[in-house]
Amino acid sequence: MVEKNLPYIEEIDEPLLPEEFKAVEEAYKKESNPTSQIKFNYAWANIKSDKKADQEKGIKILYEIYKENPGRSRECKYYLAIGEYRLGHYREARNYIDSLLEFEPKNQQFLNFKKIIDSKVQDEGILGIAIVGGIAIATGTLLIKLLKK
After folding, report:
1. Which residues touch 62 (CB under 8 Å, ≥6 apart)?
2. Which of 115, 121, 136, 138 has a CA that sits 20 to 30 A from residue 104's CA?
3. Which helix (H) or strand (E) holds 9?
4. In Å, how far are 38, 126, 128, 135, 144 from 139, measured between CA atoms?
5. Which of 105, 88, 81, 90 has its CA nearest to residue 9?
6. In 3D, which of 12, 75, 9, 74 has the Cα closest to residue 49?
7. Residue 48: what are its φ and ψ, rounded to 5°?
């Protein structure tokens, strides 16, 4: 079951166009007391940014909305997962998706996103093992050369 009000997996890594970001940002900044929806839109725009600082700002705003408005917890958790994923915080992203899957275990969109996260974790784990292995080999080679002298 794919929810129409949540972004498709393919959209996760696509940033907003600069003019789209600017329009959302202006709407947020012109309000002295922005509504939950305006805050949400601004958080979403920040998460979609290519800038790490913007993404972190978006996560912070979403987390505030999540705490203030429990009725929006589902969409906040999903977008928090996207934000954490975009920052490379895969464990946090997976935690948000797992919490959503507790209530909607057959939600295909959540399941697909979890597969993407798990794939990234696996890829980074393999890279980490290769780096550690390379360091170990280099250290061993250096020790052998030093011991031979």
Report:
1. 40, 43, 47, 76, 79, 80, 83
2. 121
3. none
4. 54, 20, 16, 6, 9
5. 81
6. 12
7. -75, -10
Outline where 12-107 has alpha helix (H). Answer: 18-29, 36-47, 52-68, 73-87, 90-103
Q: What's the predicted TM-score (pTM) here?
A: 0.76
Separation in Å, CA 99 to CA 13, 75, 103, 105, 111: 22, 12, 7, 10, 12
Place of tokens 């999903």: 78
Interval 88-117: pLDDT, tens: 999 999 999 999 999 999 999 999 999 999
Distance between CA atoms of 74 and 71, rounded to whole angstroms?
8
| Token output for 104 | 């909607």
**Residue 125 to residue 64: CA distance in whole angstroms:** 32
One-letter identity of residue 76: C
In which residue are the tokens 């940002």 written?
Answer: 25
Question: Which residue's entry shows tokens 């977008």?
Answer: 79
**What's the rounded Cα separation, in Å, for the pair 76 and 65?**
7
- The tokens describing 55, both together, are 């993404």
